[in-house]
Amino acid sequence: KQEQLFGDIAKDYSKKLYDESKKDNGKDNGKNKINQIRSFYEKVIELQEKSEGMSDEQYKREIFPFVVMLKSKAAYAQTRSLVSNTFVKMINQCVDEATTAKKMQNFKYFFEAVIGFYPKK
Fold it and tell me: What is the pTM of this model?
């Protein structure tokens, strides 16, 4: 399942995010720019690094509330037309899954794969 998560599933999300960054005429619409996506990824890296070596209980208490905050940050970015609905959905699903330090690491790896598959201009 992880190979699909870091492979086909990440690739599909990348394609959707890229496709949603274009208007009907194929020009950039300002959503899902790689810099905006990387900004979220950097926060995920920061939180994952802080969670290393923590027990699940300690992670839930000290890190997970800030992971949950990524949902509000994504929603806010969407109101500013910086990210698409698919990006918000992806963040929400990942946050919902990242309930332990190990799962937070998988969130980071998944996000890394999404960025890796994101088409370069």
Answer: 0.90
Cα angle for residues 38, 75, 33 (degrees, 5° grid): 30
Confidence bin at 2 (pLDDT 50/70/90): low
Cβ 92 vs Cβ 84: under 8 Å: no
Instruction: List Cα–Cα distances, 78 to 18, 46, 57, in angstroms.
Output: 15, 22, 32
Helix (H) or strand (E) holding 2: helix 2-4
Nearest CA-CA partner of 41 in 20, 59, 16, 14: 14
For residues 82 and 36, the answer to whether their CB atoms sit within 8 Å is yes
Beta bridge partners of 22: 28
Distance CA 50, CA 47 (A): 5
User: Strand, coil or helix: what is 28?
Assistant: strand
Interatomic CA distance for residues 44 and 86, integer angstroms: 18
